[in-house]
Amino acid sequence: MCSTDIRQDFRATWLKPLSEGSVDAVEKGFAELTLAAEARLAVSGFALSDLAFERGFDLRYVGQQWPLQVPAPSLDIARIRADFEARHERQFGHHQPNGQIEIIHLRLAGIGHLAELRSPDRARTTAKPVPYAHRQVHRGTDAGFQAVPIYDGNQLRPGQSLGGPAIIEERNTTILVGPDDRLEIDASDNFLIQVAPAAGLAP
User: How open is the CA angle 20-68-108, to the nearest 5 degrees?
Assistant: First the structure.
């Protein structure tokens, strides 16, 4: 979560009709919002080359109360109108083919892209995992109790695998490997479990 792209949203009240004649003024409004977004994101340490911007509008028919958000990757008025009408039809069940559309807000999302993070792959091992204990686990009314091996998940390493039934204990979770399931540890220390078709084990 801490490595997701940084996003800040900006909005400017407009209250003017959506029309071909408004394109230049709208372009100027977006340019001003972009400067504000660049300044805000620059404080976070982003270079301009790392930034991306997504434009959009809050639109409504004149006289209506609730606007709809419509993306505006380009100022193609016919495309924007068609998009708004489709969204209005989907949201409210109708649209006005010749209705006058009003721009309520200009919207701009400034996005600072962070480099993709990847944990370094850990060295693989061929050593067989060894349980640190066995515990009696109840498998249900028919099977009753069974001695199940308990493994320390923090000691398992990439390349190791084991078959169920087994229990993996970590600092913040317990993982159940059912009968006939197969657990493998990948290069990033993920536990991958191949679940058997009819696996089941109740502690």
Answer: 70
Q: 3-class DSSP state for residue 63?
A: coil
The reported pLDDT for the residue numbered 163 is 93
Model's pTM, two decimal places?
Answer: 0.56
Residue 62 pLDDT more than 90? Answer: yes
Contact at 8 Å (CB) between 66 and 104? no
Which residues make Cβ contacts (< 8 Å) with residue 195, sequence separation at least 6? Answer: 178, 181
Tell me the residue length of the chain: 203
Quick one: DSSP state of residue 189? S
Residue 47 tokens, joined: 């270079």
Domains of the chain: 6-112 (3.30.1490), 133-194 (no CATH)
Of 84, 165, 184, 167, which is closest to residue 133 (Cα–Cα)?
Answer: 167
Residue 81 has pLDDT above 90, yes or no: yes
Q: Which two tokens stand for residue 12?
A: 């400017």
Q: pLDDT category, 198, cuts 50, 70, 90?
A: low
| DSSP state at residue 121 | P
Does residue 17 contact residue 100 with C-beta atoms inside 8 Å? yes
β-pairing verdict for 161-163 and 166-169: unpaired
